[in-house]
Amino acid sequence: MAESSRRPALDGDQGEGALWANQSLILKQLEELKNEFRRFTTEVRLEFQSIKGGGGNVQLPQPPASPVHRAVPRRGRGGRRARNELPELSDSEVEPGFPQQEDLSDPGEEEYQQCFSPPRQRQETWPRQQGEFRVKMDIPFFDGKLHIEDFLDWERAVETFFEYMDVPRDKQVKYVACRLRGGASAWWQQLLQTRHREGRGSVRSWARMKQLLRSHYLPTDYDQILYMKFQQCTQGQRSVSDYTEEFYRLSARNNLNESANQIVARYVGGLKEPIQDKLELNSVWSLSQAVNFALKAEMQLNRQLRSAPQRRFLGDSVSSDNRGQGPNQSSNSKVPPKASTVTTPPPQTGDNRQVNRMKTPNRDNPYGRPTTLKCFRCFQPGHKSNECPNRQQVQLLEGESEHFTTTAEGEDDEDYEEVAGDEGEPVVCVLQKLLLTPNQNTKTQRNAIFKSKCTIKGKVCDLLIDNGCTENIVSKALVNALQLKTTKNPNPYRISWVKRGIDIQVSEMCRVNFSIGKHYNSEVLCDVLDMDVCHLILGRPWQFDTGVIYDGRANAYAFEWKGRKLKLLPTMLRPANEDGDRKPALCIFSGNSLLKSGREVKAVLAVVVAEENQNATMVNYPSELLQILEEFSDTIPNSLPSELPPERSVQHQIDFVPGANLPNLPHYKMSPAEHKQLQNIVDDLLDKQLIQPSLSPCAVPALLVPKKDGSWRMCIDSRAINKITLKYRFPVPRLEDMLDYLAGATVFSKLDLRSGYHQIRIRPGDEWKTAFKTRNGLFEWRVMPFGLCNAPATFLRLMSEVLKPLLGKCCVVYFDDILVFSSSMDEHWKDLKAVLELLRQHKLYQNKAKCELATSSVHFLGYIVSADGVGMDPNKISAIQQWQRPSTLTEVRSFHGLANFYRRFIRGFSIIMAPITDCLKASSFKWGVEQQRSFDTLKAALTEAPVLAAPNFNKPFHVDTDASAVGIGARRVL
């Protein structure tokens, strides 16, 4: 009734104006009702919070029933809108303490919901509107297979659920445990059972449960991994929006305490360079400004790329046909089908922008590195070949083209990566080089055709590129040798120029997959011919498909391949007088290959190698030594145990420079035989548990290095890792100090560790920093590998700590070489047993094949150590005696370094070596009479060098001196 009394009186005619006035008044009343309802809900909310804070059981007052407003039936506009104007609560207005229309899993929350649920009558009075929704939340399931960021997202979802749903603390752990699945659920049950057996209480708080989950499912250095991802976050080939999304995510993950300017600098530094150039024109003070400017710059650059016309060539020029036209000439004029060659200079009508451009070439970036332009037509600096005034003008077709991109300003041949011919195991095919040019006396390419080497199925083959050949051709001998699959040629034909006096029928085709260098690998369809010119001829089809550019002066082919600019270089010609200087090659053949080669040639020189029996010398050992070897046989095994070495106090640690970028390099290209050998080594290391599969963000390639015994050793190219590793300085013992301890010693034994580096563990948590790549996967070391910068210091630190009680008394150690010395044989047995006992305690194993036991002289660090003293190694003296006259500065440095190693044995070494030392100071190689005299005198002095006795510090020293006007000289007399 109150509502009806407040209705305005309507005129009898019920005009449209009165209806609109009536509607406005009703809307105003509804707005007042909405405000009144909001005040009521605020009072109820505050009352509930006060009761909850007091903790007492206080009877909450029932909210007063709001008056029910009956909708006024109206016709016309807005008649259906009045019902939608009723006050409704949005999701943002509902707090955790206010009752919600949803089912909760917690019983306490259900009672709480029922206690404060609005009456059913009010629900009927306020029907659900179209924009109303109910929030339904739940914790995602967790099965223990999430990555770092996914786990952190799940953890945040749990905490958001607890905060929004106001779950009591004593029920949080139980609720999360219900959401565990699979391996995570099994791990949680095992954890609870373990705690129950150990008498510990159950986990009662979510904070403790979160700590346990993190310790089990997150790596110990996950924060470092996230920081490294943040450090390496760059735009790359992505859009600005994708890069911004990742930047925001990683910034939130790391939560670094950086200022706003530092965050902006980090964001801008990861953008592409063209976008950075655009942002440098504006002052950016916040991250949101930087993001907006970057998005606008990206849109601008995309418009420029879409609007820039692309040109299609008819010749070697990049200028358009309308360049230099007058203002009255149309820029859209078409070029006639047949382009005419004009030798006149460019037209001077209209503006002379072309002439000015020839004089002063523009550069898009004034702050970029200046480039030295050089014309390849007139060979004059200052302009490019397409701007050369002496060039022939060629008309161009102007228009859209998807197959060509114009060359950037200032770009020249220096951007191309030079690719030389392959080296390796040649294919076994006999070829007669009939059509190749004879050897010239010069090293130029003026009379040479392009010849190089390529790799086909791991074999190095002869390659020839011929501009006049209309097909790609492969030798039939190569097809048979490598068992390549052939197909019939649909258009057979005959040719007669590839073999002397014979017409050859071309009826077969073959697809040949070949590679040159590390980055170029292609497959070509070739005609199979019985030719003896070379193994593979690349003709016009390959040149057309690849889009090569031929440089006639350099005899090189340049092209783009998978984003790289490559330039194929020919095999360098060797003068005829250098053929006699080539060293003979030593090849190893199987039995069948040797018989086959013997049928083709008249004489074959073969080297038969007999394997040395390492056990043959055991019969000459004294009985005391055999007894010691039997006692310590566990420390001298034939191979390392198939288990990890023990955790010692000395472990190899790898600490990176803060803020350094982690390397991720591709694996090296290898032949199938090398790859098989590398895979065998990797499988053996996996069986011995020395390496394990890795998910490391950084990786370096692995390679093979031959050993002295003919086997192969896998090495890691760790140069990129060593650049960002902090260097630890550990003192390396001086050779002179170690030799001083040998005074009075007559019996020596040298022990050598078996794979000494692999007997040292990597510090836990640093394994991912040693990851290496092969063709079959990514692996990381669990023991110390070769090639790391701090590895020698770590190994020497371990050996010094293990042998510390005996160092200087009966043994000296230099990395993995342990020299045991004694004054008598009886004393030597005790010293040797003491050293072996220390090695046994620390589980360090020796290589018996490299050990020299109980001898009167021993090789140690390039010297011969005996009871008489220290002498030179005869092998090194022989190498110096056979040294040929140096012909380059590099050979002079090699001889100087080797001779300098034995300078202590030669009186007046500096005076004799002075002419050769002066030769090294010159900028160019000069070898005269004085250098030759010094060279011969030094070799003669090495043959007469004495054996130096070790000094006995228990006896007095006599020092003789002589007066001098420029210095003091002295010598020591024993």
TrEMBL record:
Using the record's annotation, list all stretches that form the CCHC-type domain. Answer: 374-390
CDD domains per UniProt? retropepsin_like, RT_LTR
Q: From which organism does this entry originate?
A: Dendrobium nobile
Q: Which InterPro entries match?
A: DNA/RNA_pol_sf (IPR043502), Peptidase_aspartic_dom_sf (IPR021109), Retrotrans_gag_dom (IPR005162), Rev_trsase/Diguanyl_cyclase (IPR043128), RT_dom (IPR000477), RT_RNaseH_2 (IPR041577), Znf_CCHC (IPR001878), Znf_CCHC_sf (IPR036875)
Q: In Gene Ontology terms, what is a biological process of this protein?
A: proteolysis
Disordered: annotated segments: 52-129, 306-368
Highest taxon of the source? Eukaryota
The answer to keyword Nucleotidyltransferase applying to this record is yes
The answer, when asked if Metal-binding is one of the entry's keywords, is yes
Per the record, where are the segments of Basic residues compositional bias?
71-81
Q: Cite the record's Acidic residues compositional bias ranges.
A: 103-112
- This chain belongs to the protein called Uncharacterized protein
Which Gene3D superfamilies does this one have? 3.30.70.270, Acid Proteases, HIV Type 1 Reverse Transcriptase, subunit A, domain 1
Where are stretches of biased composition, namely Polar residues? 317-334, 349-359
- Which GO molecular function annotations are given, in alphabetical order? aspartic-type endopeptidase activity; DNA binding; endonuclease activity; RNA-directed DNA polymerase activity; zinc ion binding
Q: Which Pfam families match?
A: Retrotrans_gag, RT_RNaseH_2, RVT_1
Q: Which UniProt keywords apply?
A: Aspartyl protease, DNA-binding, Endonuclease, Hydrolase, Metal-binding, Nuclease, Nucleotidyltransferase, Protease, RNA-directed DNA polymerase, Transferase, Zinc, Zinc-finger
Q: Give the Reverse transcriptase domain ranges.
A: 686-865
Q: Which SUPFAM superfamilies match?
A: DNA/RNA polymerases, Retrovirus zinc finger-like domains
